[in-house]
Every structure is written in structure tokens, then in C-alpha cells.
Amino acid sequence: MGAYLLRRLALLVPTLFGIILINFIVVQFAPGGPVEQMLAELRGSNVSTIGRLGESQGELRGPPQGQAGEGPAGTYRGARGMDPAVVAEIERLFGFDKPAHERFLTMIKGYLTFDFGESLFRGRKVVDLLWEKLPVSISLGLWSTLIIYIVSIPLGIRKAVRDGTRFDAWTSGVVLVGYAVPGFLFAILLVVLFAGGSFVQWFPLRGLASSGSAEWPFWQRALDYAWHMALPTLALVIGGFAGLTMLTKNSFLEEINKQYVVTARAKGAGEGRVLYGHVFRNAMLLIIAGFPAAFIGILFTGALLVEIVFSLDGLGLLGFEAAIRRDYPVMFGTLYIFTLLGLVMQIVGDVTYTLIDPRIDFEARR
């Protein structure tokens, strides 16, 4: 197992490099980059933009009316009618005065020490932004994944034991209906019903804590945290039951009909002993080992619209806004972290396989 882990860890570097390189190349051909957006804001006399540029250049002149840009200004549509010196300063400010390969190498060197640079439009370090948004996304991903597993596994086992009964039929209907409702649509329904939309306001609609909660006792802060997390977590959980419940049921049904189960029952083992002493380890191999991947999936892909609906400023919303604004340092910084975590979690999943079933050996060869 040690040699296998070393090989997997060694593959992290070229895999991560390849993913970042491909996305960097794709971004170079995407229209509407940060320079174009800054020039568009300048043409609209955006005060904050002009002030920011003024700090770095000293004094900016307004764009000449009716004058076409020359030189670097001809590169961008938004540069038409702008002073070439202003365009050149914007390119220098964003680092676009250097060739693409130099910018990529500089970015990779910084990533080796987890230095992701500074956001182009927020004026803050990317690392600080990630640390600030991380608690929201971890809270949503962790609690929703745990609740899905805690509910789906016992329900799937019960459905397997009572396969074909009325209990199996109506629970399948409920689970599939929940799966058919998109998480964000259910989130809107929860807001309308319980967060002051049209009926009652039993739950808050913004953030993870009430104002002034930092001064409260620990138990009161914990209750306040749970109060804020109730509706967003429920919105993510409602659509996650179906797949795991049916996978658990089918895994148990497959194992229940095998010879070793028949032998255990013939020896007089009780139903609980058969299910949880013999069947559970084999049936739950894929389910439990898939927990790291499930957590990463909910953490980084399933919470974006829920964060928007409940005004939760997490990683999903941060990445979405960075993509819209073409905030490349934030885009690539979040991509780097997400990819690294995803690759590490794949290795953790493989290790989990061997912990659950020691018979699995990834180094075995025929």
C-alpha cells in the first residue's frame, strides 16, 4: 500500500499542472477579460475604478472624445477612444503587459507556496478570500453529507429487508419525488414558507450567525449556528437521498442472496447478526468509501444556487462571481484548491477501501 500511495502522490503534480495549463489556455481565448471590463467601467466614468488606477499611475486623463485608440488600445474593443497611456497602465496593473507564458510561469511559481496573488477587483489576497468563504461551504457540505448518509443508509437497509412490500413502494415514491425537485427550487419554497417570504419567519435568511453572537455563551452560539444552517442544509439534503438510498438497497439485496448469507442463517445466526455482522461490510464498501468524493461534490458543486438563495457568501458564490468578472487570480486560485482537494480525496477514498475490506490490494498483480 505504501508504494501505491507514493505513486498516487507523485501523479498529483503532473495532473494538477495539466488541469491548470488547459484552463489557462482556454481562458486566453475567452472574450471580455478584466482589461476589457476595466476599460468599459472607465468609459462609464466609474469612480472606484478611476480612483484605483489613479493610485498606481498618479493621475489619469479622461478619454478623448471621438478619438480611436492606437497601439495597445487597438487590442480591445473597450479601448476605442481611450488614451493609449491609460490602456497601457491598465494592462500593466493586471499583468497583461507580459507574454502569456511568462504570466503562467509566474502563477505556477506562486502556487507552489500557495501564493495565489491578489484579486483584480476586490483588492484583497486570494488566500484571504478563500479562508473567509471556506467556513460557509464546509458547513453546507459537511452537514448535508452527514445527514444524507445517516438517513439514507438505514432507510436503504430497511427497504432491502422489506423489498416488494408497501413500505418499499411508498418510500421509493417519496425518495424519487424529492430527487426530482431541484435543490434551489426547494430552497425558494423554504424561504417562502419559513423565512418571511409569504407566511412565517421562523428562520433567518442571511449568514451563519446573528449580529452580536460573538459575545454569547458557546451553547447559545451553537444553537444560533444550527438555526441559521437548518434551511440551507435541508435544501441540499432533500435531493441527495435518492441515489444513496437506492444504492444501499441494491447493494444489500445483492449480498443477501449470496451463499455466505445462506450459510450464516443455516448456522442459526440471527437476522441482525447476518445483516450487520456479515452483509454490512461487503454491501457498504462502495457507499462508505465514496464518502470523501460525495463530500467534495456537495461542497464545491451543489451549493452555489443555495448560497445565492440564502445569501450565504461561500466558495460557490465566490467562484461564480470571479468567473463573471473574469477575476483570474480568484478563478485559478479556487480551481487549484478544488482540484488539489479532489485529487487528495480520491486517494483518501482508495485508502478507505482497504480499511473497510483488508482483502483489497491495489498493488496486486496477476
From TrEMBL:
Mainly resides where? membrane
Q: How does it sit in the membrane?
A: Multi-pass membrane protein
Domain ABC transmembrane type-1: from-to ranges: 134-349
InterPro entries (alphabetical): MetI-like, MetI-like_sf
Q: Which residues form a coiled coil?
A: none
Query: What keywords sit in the KW lines?
Result: Cell inner membrane, Cell membrane, Membrane, Transmembrane, Transmembrane helix, Transport
PANTHER family, sorted = INNER MEMBRANE ABC TRANSPORTER, INNER MEMBRANE ABC TRANSPORTER PERMEASE PROTEIN YEJB
| UniProt protein name | Microcin ABC transporter permease
From which organism does this entry originate?
Answer: Teichococcus aestuarii
